[in-house]
Specification:
Layout lengths: L41 H19 L4 H12 L9 H4 L4
Helix pairs in contact: 1-2
Amino acid sequence: MPHLPFTPSPSSSPQSSPTTPSIVLHPASAGKTSKRELYKSNDDVASQYRTRYAQYLAAAFNMSLEAALVEADSQLAPRRSSGVSEAEAFRTS
């Protein structure tokens, strides 16, 4: 039977050559209190998105961050509700 690379050779035994693991994992220290939040509130997520969007606008259009925040607020403002759906508005009789 041919010798396969993943089978141990008969001349070497596991006790004769101790190997150290190549990756050592250390547990996180118990004193750390900084935990990643798994669940964030919608307000927090919306605020972070608003800030990132404003930073994008400021960088892309070479404007101040304050002006970009105002623009982001106007673009991200809730839309007014309408009594007519979009499909009904474009329907031709």
